[in-house]
Amino acid sequence: TTVKARSCVTTWRSCSVEIIRKRAYARAGLLGNPSDGYNGKTISFSVRNFFAEVVLYEWDAMEIVLAEQDRARFRSIHDLAADVRSHGYYGGIRLVKATIKRFADYCELQGIRLHERNFSVRYSSNVPRQVGLAGSSAIIVATLRCLMEFYGVEIPLRVQPSLVLSVETQELGIAAGLQDRVIQCYEGLVYMDFSPEQAEVIDGLTCYAYEPLDPALLPPVYVAYHTELGEPTEVFHNDIRGRYNRGEPAIVDAMQRFAGLAADGRAALLTGDVDALTAAINANFDLRCSLYRLPDWQVQMVETARACGASAKFAGSGGGIVGTADDAVYPELVKALNAIGTAVIRPTI
Q1: Reduced to 3 states, what is the DSSP secondary structure of residue 19?
Q2: Which of the residues 36, 70, 105, 180 is marked catalytic?
Q3: Directed axis angle between helix 135-151 and helix 93-109, to 10°?
Q4: Could you tell me where in the chain the CATH 3.30.70.890 domains are found?
Q5: How many Å apart are CA 176 and CA 40, to the nearest integer?
Q6: E-assigned strands of 238-336?
Q7: Measured CA angle at 122 (ends 188, 223), to 5 deg
Q8: What does the pLDDT look like over 16-30, one tens digit per residue?
Q9: Which of 217, 142, 136, 123 shows the shortest CA–CA distance to 185?
Q10: What mean pLDDT is predicted for residues 170-185?
Q11: Secondary structure (3-state) at 110
Q12: What residue ranges of the chain are covered by domains with CATH 3.30.230.10?
C-alpha cells in the first residue's frame, strides 16, 4: 500500500511524504520440501496470519532503521543471552541491506537507470523465528516490493523469487532453495517444479515452472510451531547440501522421492483425494526422518499430531509442522500440542 502523510517537518515548512508499505507473508511447505534446492518439486501455501512489513519513504540520506531484532543494548548479560537464543546473532538489517545492493546490481545489469532520490527504510516482523515459516525471506520480499515501487521498476513475477534467493545465497552465503521465495512472491497455493528441463534463464537468473492452484482445493489444514524452541534453517540445509554434493545415494534418492510426493499431492488436490494427500504428507516426514536423527522435541510434535488423527510433517526447516486436520480432530489437536509448548492455528491462505 502507498499512503501520503504530512509527517515531514523542517524548520521552515512541512512537506508531503509518500509512504510505501509492503508485506510478505509466512509460508508452510505442504509437500516436497526440502527438495526445492535439489531440482525437486514442492507444494507450499501462504500463512497470512504472520508477515514481515517494510516501510520506505523518501529521505535526505540513505537510512536503514534498526528494528527490535537488531538491538545492541541489553539490560544484562542474561538478557543478551536470551536474545541470542530467541533471535540468533543476526537481525534483519543484513537482509534489507543485501536486498538493496542486489536490486541495484540487477537494475545495472538490465540497463535500468535509477533516480537519485534517497530513502529511509525500516522493517518489522511478527513471523515466529527459527521454526521454519520463512521469516527471513519475507523481509527480503517485502523490501524488494518497496524498492520496485519507489524506483518504478517492474521485475517479472517469475524472476522475483530467483532474485530474492540470490540475495541470500550470493550476497549472504545462506543455504536455501526457491520454494519460500516463490510462494511469498506468488502467494496463495502454488505447485513448483524445479526439474532441470523446466529451467529457463530470464534476466540472468534461473527460473522454473510455478503453477498457482486454487486454495479451495485444500482440505482443512493447520500450522503449529513450538513457542520456545527452534532451529535455524542453516542447521538443516547445510548438512543435507554437503551430503547431496558428495553424491550420497540415500540423499540423492530421497530428493527424487520428495519430488514424487509433491507430484502425488498435486494430483490428490486436483481430484479431491484427501486420503492420498494425507498419506503423502505423512510419507514426506517419514522419509525425512529416515535420513538422519532429528531432535526429539521435533519428532514429538509430529507424533503428537498424528496420535490425534491429523497428518503431520515439518513446515520448513524444523520447529514448525503442517498437516490436515478436520473439525472433529482439531480441538483435540490444539489441546495436545499446547500441552507440549506448541501453538496451533488455522492458517489464512
Answers
A1: strand
A2: 180
A3: 50
A4: 215-345
A5: 13
A6: 313-314, 320-324
A7: 30
A8: 678 999 999 999 999
A9: 142
A10: 93
A11: coil
A12: 2-213
Cell 514426506, residue? 284
CB distance 125 to 51 below 8 Å: yes
Q: List, for residues 91-108, the tens digit of each pLDDT value.
A: 789 999 999 999 999 999
**N residues, the chain:** 349
CB atoms within 10 A of CB 68: 11
Ramachandran region, residue 319 (left: φ > 0; alpha: ψ -120 to 50; beta: rest): left
pTM: 0.90
* Confidence band for 239, pLDDT divided at 50, 70 and 90: confident
Q: What's the grid cell of residue 125?
A: 516482523
pLDDT of residue 208 exceeding 60: yes
Q: Residue 144 CA to chain centroid, in angstroms? A: 14
Architecture of domain 2-213: 2-Layer Sandwich (3.30)
Cα separation, 161 vs 81, in Å, equals 34
Residue whose C-alpha cell is 520447529? 319
Does residue 180 have an active-site annotation? yes
Closest CA to 149 of 274, 252, 1: 1
CATH fit for domain 215-345, picks 3.20.20.70, 3.55.40.20, 3.30.70.890, 3.30.420.270 = 3.30.70.890
To 5 degrees, how large is the angle CA 148–CA 42–CA 305? Answer: 115
